[in-house]
Amino acid sequence: MLLIFLIFISIAQCAQELSDIEKIEQAYDCDPKCWFREAEVNSSTITQWPVNCTEVCGIMNFNAGSDLPVFELQTYFKNLRVLKGVLQFSYTKYASIEFLLSLEEIHCDAVTLGVSFSFNSNLEVLNFNNLTNITCDFYAYNNTILDGTEFCDRYADLALMFVYNNFKNCKGCVSDQLHSTELDKFRGCTAIVNTMFFMFFNVYTTQPPIDLSPLSDIQNISGCLNFYSTDLHDFSFFEKLENIKSNKYANVDINIFESYNLTRFRMPALKTIETTRDNFIINVEKVHDDFCFTPSEMLFFLKNEVIFSKIEAKICQNVTEEDGEDDCIFDGMSKLDNNCSDVLGKITIGSGDEAYVEKLRNVKNIYGGIRIENTNLTNLEFLGSLEYVASLNDSAVPFQISSNKLLQNASLPNLKRVFSTSRYQIGFQENGNDFLNSTACLFLMNQLFLTNVVFDGNECEAIDRTNQNNGANWIFRLNFFILLLWVSL
Ligand SMILES: *[C@@H]1O[C@H](CO)[C@@H](O)[C@H](O)[C@H]1NC(C)=O
Ligand SMILES: *[C@@H]1O[C@H](CO)[C@@H](O)[C@H](O)[C@H]1NC(C)=O
Ligand SMILES: *[C@@H]1O[C@H](CO)[C@@H](O)[C@H](O)[C@H]1NC(C)=O
Ligand SMILES: *[C@@H]1O[C@H](CO)[C@@H](O)[C@H](O)[C@H]1NC(C)=O
Ligand SMILES: *[C@@H]1O[C@H](CO)[C@@H](O)[C@H](O)[C@H]1NC(C)=O
Ligand SMILES: *[C@@H]1O[C@H](CO)[C@@H](O)[C@H](O)[C@H]1NC(C)=O
Ligand SMILES: *[C@@H]1O[C@H](CO)[C@@H](O)[C@H](O)[C@H]1NC(C)=O
Ligand SMILES: *[C@@H]1O[C@H](CO)[C@@H](O)[C@H](O)[C@H]1NC(C)=O
Ligand SMILES: *[C@@H]1O[C@H](CO)[C@@H](O)[C@H](O)[C@H]1NC(C)=O
Ligand SMILES: *[C@@H]1O[C@H](CO)[C@@H](O)[C@H](O)[C@H]1NC(C)=O
Ligand SMILES: *[C@@H]1O[C@H](CO)[C@@H](O)[C@H](O)[C@H]1NC(C)=O
Ligand SMILES: *[C@@H]1O[C@H](CO)[C@@H](O)[C@H](O)[C@H]1NC(C)=O
Question: Where would I find the Receptor L-domain domain in this sequence (predicted)?
């Protein structure tokens, strides 16, 4: 099934994209003399191999027709250190790959399926020797006598490994689409390889209700998580899930879609989220109206520089946080506690509140927003600890500084990100004697992650992020559309 899925993805991408050779040409630095452009490696094509090159661009495709003996290949490949392109090894008769002993790096992130070994019935071992770098996912499956154990142990940190259906595989259970009736096969699995795809997955609306406990041992998922049309209430069945190490396989790392009974996220043990793309992407779309992220969940995402493709969510109000520390709830500056670190609500500092601003000295995170208006404050030093501001279900600019005529300085040394779905996250208006010019504005913005600053109606930077997002969404939908087609076949 995984294979079919892959083929579908490749067809989808080929239809709209370039051939592998074109992708290699565009992505990598290639010496025109060091190409191998033949469709496969065999006794008639091998003469085209650029023997003297240490870095070769192209496709090394070994298959049932590959008729060259190992010793001969060894002489051809003895100088090969870096392959930029594809290494494909399917239905061959080879028992080992000692002709690739000198290979040190495979640059393959630019192609659809970079490195794969499949259906090689004699292949016993993946004896790479000097390999130190693979820039794409590694596939080895359905090689009946292959023992991948040593390879897996040695290269576990190098690439995401899909080594399955061989005689011996990497640790971890391979998953793809999950059927609620087949969960038992995951009992005892502590590590999952590949996407976990909960699609049309009904637990409570099925009789009898589905037992989710087989998923409770999972600690690591190497791949993305996808919830697409489910009746789940939250994800607390992932009791022990600590690490998600996603890849570019789908367009989103955690996708939550059409789960109208979902009110909370709740992965109690989650500690790390990583992805091979630049930023971890989460999509929250079409969930229960009450769906909320707790302040700690939101903070975790902010700290990990998560990008939200959509976030139809609120911040949970009035929850007792797991870490035991309750957040301060804002109800006016005069009533605020002296030493809050996390504040829930929209902080407003107006004329007359100047005397209380020192109360904010230890505030690190604000869930809601902050507005400083009509004060005679001269600087924002009292926000020296502030790191994150997040506002979810609100179209207003979350951090506003307006009409503070004496303000001379807007330095916020620890601020890292202000998050909202509105176009701008920080707005300055009619403060001081024009102390904030475009240079100072850019300086402030450059220290922040994905935070747009606007001052007196001028954008700090004219990047239209909205359009970028729409593009990503479109591709993402296309892939789902293709999947749906495939499922309905
Ligand atoms: C080698 O591969 C080429 C390209 O696919 C093919 O045309 C040729 O017939 C093959 N030669 C042998 C000896 O299999
Ligand atoms: C490779 O290098 C050897 C020795 O330097 C030389 O004899 C040979 O002609 C070169 N081959 C090619 C294809 O350039
Ligand atoms: C592997 O690397 C070592 C150290 O760099 C080198 O001595 C050896 O020749 C390399 N092996 C092959 C087969 O190229
Ligand atoms: C692998 O090679 C790529 C491309 O040269 C480089 O960007 C990356 O840092 C390398 N990774 C490791 C672990 O050496
Ligand atoms: C791959 O291996 C698995 C498990 O051994 C087997 O069930 C499956 O049929 C094989 N796939 C193909 C296409 O042979
Ligand atoms: C999960 O991942 C962590 C960090 O990479 C690793 O230390 C741990 O051994 C993994 N656990 C399992 C069960 O694979
Ligand atoms: C939500 O849960 C209720 C009660 O369990 C159930 O009746 C309803 O069908 C569920 N709705 C969806 C969309 O799953
Ligand atoms: C918060 O929760 C507590 C206990 O669950 C409840 O007594 C209190 O009324 C709630 N406060 C608000 C503002 O909802
Ligand atoms: C205020 O909070 C900080 C950090 O949370 C702590 O180090 C400090 O002791 C607290 N001060 C008072 C007076 O509670
Ligand atoms: C700031 O305004 C408050 C009243 O809003 C006033 O008491 C205070 O003296 C003013 N401070 C300065 C420096 O003007
Ligand atoms: C956002 O959600 C909070 C909590 O449910 C609610 O009090 C507030 O009115 C909402 N704001 C908007 C603009 O929807
Ligand atoms: C902009 O403001 C900064 C500091 O506020 C100042 O150093 C700089 O000279 C100003 N630049 C211009 C072009 O006004």
Answer: 52-143, 189-300, 339-432
Q: Are 131 and 140 in contact (CB under 8 A)?
A: no
For 379-435, write each residue's pLDDT tens digit: 999 999 999 999 998 889 999 999 999 988 888 999 999 999 998 999 988 887 777
Which domains, ranges and CATH numbers included, belong to the chain? Answer: 2-164 (3.80.20.20), 173-315 (3.80.20.20), 328-465 (3.80.20.20)
Q: How far is the CA of 82 from the centre of ligand 3 (A)?
A: 13
- Say if ligand 3 is within 6 A of residue 102 CB: yes
Give the pLDDT mean for 232-240.
95
Rounded Cα distance, 64 and 326, in Å: 65
CA of 363 to the centre of ligand 9 (A): 11
Q: Tell me if 76 CB under 6 Å of ligand 12.
A: no
Atom of ligand 11 nearest to the CA of 392: 1
Stated pTM of the model: 0.73
Question: If you measure from the C-alpha of residue 422 to the centroid of ligand 8, how many angstroms do you get, rounded to a whole number?
Answer: 29
Q: Whose CA is nearest to atom 11 of ligand 3?
A: 102
Q: What is the pLDDT of residues 289-313, one digit of tens each?
A: 999 999 999 999 999 999 999 999 9
